[in-house]
Amino acid sequence: MLSIAETAAATAASATPSPKLVSAAHEFEAQMMQELLKPLNSSSGLDGEDSDSDSGSGSALGEFASGALGKALSEQGGFGIATSILHQLSPAGNKRKTER
Question: What ranges do the domains of the chain cover?
């Protein structure tokens, strides 16, 4: 069994962030982008329905579209929020920050 110091050294030596961290960072950025896109769906009628329509399917479709667009943008770089999170939370990023 590895000691805490050995585990920390092995983690710091690896430069690649864990897949869970990458996924969480992209999911966070996608959620932020979805929130930024929400006003576009609700106020401008981009869902193709009249404003007096009582069916909720248009808003559900708009939310799905916002989520899908946010996720796709995040995976392609987006605003760089996920990259910044990965840099800040990766062992290599933390090591460089403490060395300054």
Answer: 17-47+56-99
